[in-house]
Amino acid sequence: MQVTKETLIGEALEMNMGIAPILMEIGMHCLGCPSSQNESIADACMVHGVDADEVVKKINDVLASA
Asked: What is the pLDDT averaged over residues 19-37?
């Protein structure tokens, strides 16, 4: 399994809840909110001012090790 910048937050969390700390690190403290579930990784990164490519890499590293 892998995510892309277009993957929705909710879809990514369904793949592996172990990625939640990565999202929390960038300031996404409302992972359970319906609006965040339907937001893409790219959109979330843009809002929180972080590099989406770096976040996708971190998430994919967790998914690969699971």
From this structure: 84
Residue 17: pLDDT band (50, 70, 90) is very high
- Category of 56 on φ-ψ map: left (φ > 0), alpha (ψ -120 to 50) or beta: alpha
| 3 state SS of 25 | helix
Decide: 15 and 41 in contact? Cβ < 8 Å. Answer: no
Under 8 Å CB-to-CB from 28, ≥6 apart: which residues? 9, 36, 44, 48
d(CA 28, CA 37): 11
* DSSP H helices in 1-66: 9-15, 20-25, 34-37, 41-48, 52-65
